[in-house]
Amino acid sequence: xxxxxxxxxxxxxxxxxxxxxxxxxxxxxxxxxxxxxxxxxxxxxxxxxxxxxxxxxxxxxxxxxxxxxxxxxxxxxxxxxxxxxxxxxxxxxxxxxxxxxxxxxxxxxxxxxxxxxxxxxxxxxxxxxxxxxxxxxxxxxxxxxxxxxxxxxxxxxxxxxxxxxxxxxxxxxxxxxxxxxxxxxxxxxxxxxxxxxxxxxxxxxxxxxxxxxxxxxxxxxxxxxxxxxxxxxxxxxxxxxxxxxxxxxxxxxxxxxxxxxxxxxxxxxxxxxxxxxxxxxxxxxxxxxxxxxxxxxxxxxxxxxxxxxxxxxxxxxxxxxxxxxxxxxxxxxxxxxxxxxxxxxxxxxxxxxxxxxxxxxxxxxxxxxxxxxxxxxxxxxxxxxxxxxxxxxxxxxxxxxxxxxxxxxxxxxxxxxxxxxxxxxxxxxxxxxxxxxxxxxxxxxxxxxxxxxxxxxxxxxxxxxxxxxxxxxxxxxxxxxxxxxxxxxxxxxxxxxxxxxxxxxxxxxxxxxxxxxxxxxxxxxxxxxxx
Length: 531
Hints:
This protein folds into four domains: 5-112, Rhodanese-like domain (Oxidized Rhodanese, domain 1); 119-258, Rhodanese-like domain (Oxidized Rhodanese, domain 1, 3-Layer(aba) Sandwich), CATH 3.40.250; 263-359, 3-Layer(aba) Sandwich (Oxidized Rhodanese, domain 1); 383-474, 3-Layer(aba) Sandwich (Oxidized Rhodanese, domain 1), CATH 3.40.250.10. Helix content is 39%, strand content 13%. The chain has 22 helices and 19 strands. Helix 8 (156-161) links the parallel strand 7 and strand 8 (168-169).
């Protein structure tokens, strides 16, 4: 590996981050460890899931890729670089000293996840002085029967978990597209909320930038601020904003056109996008910003679903190459234009809206399927086979669940051990009396990716569960809950403030303070290009 992977100093990496050339910076620690302290523009691609994520995040295999982790002594960067070489990536470097080396050079480290997007939200509030209301002020408006609507700018699953009473779900990119049908009266006050701050700020400012006639404000601190103020949250709500009617569509198109002109949003014809995809020297990301249901019903081949404002809220989960081209598509251009306007302000210089949108070419159906290595082994043990083995001959059987610890905690196959894939070798070393080891994960893909790792140790027969734990549960087979059999720390996930098991209020207050402080921190860092 030393002959094929170079090393880059913190100073040289910072210069590259400030440049205009394409660059992928990936941190290969588990998300929980990554969230403690990382470089601002480092994309979290855990070694455990590298094969499942890297082709979508870094599609061009000769783009410069810098690999980092906590420090070079942890071995993760070396293992990740070896795996990337095996996957065909040819232009690799490791960061000298990892994030610790970056800090030692006097540069800034950030905690949390999706930090560039969250920092951008705070920047926008400062830049535009986005109107905001406290929970108490909104509660008083509700109690006073004010002519108002509350729109929740998060994806439906987050909204469904807990929301402000009476709120309707309308994810960020949908706001300008759907707001007219929900609030056609220009006197109706529109309050936008999210869980914390970013999406409510961006959502409210989207409506203001679009020039809707209604008064608009963001709910300060979102559902967390509502809870901290002592007000009850609603749970299990299913109110979703309807698709716009003819009048709503025309209003939305007019509003979005004004935003596009203001922020310099450009379009690109379909045949030009086809040529871009064939360009071996540039990376082009194709992103469909409609809802998951619309995407599944029909989309252009090669376009990945990045729905409901999540492309702005969590850009690093969809795009792993700085200075790449981004092509956005929807049905009538509203959602793509609004999303593009924010990406341009975030500093993305090569963003285009596809002319004709999803109707520009022949469509395919179904959900997005990630690109996987062709060499990924197939799963061989069906759920029925595992169930029979558990019933007839449980001795000598070990089940290892490699999925997120949060999913394992919610539901797993009875008796299954949990560990992260990056520490699978350590877990296997502790298993000395098994005749059969069965690997599983949510949909089975991660278990398949780990098969070669486990078989390389050669201790016993190893199989992967067909369809993973999801299929096991879908067939109404037995399950257990809790973190009952774990190997190693559960550092694979970043916990949202309301996911912590104790003193959630303190975690909420700390999180909100952290978001506000990001403006000063990004100024110290100096590598952003926010407009």
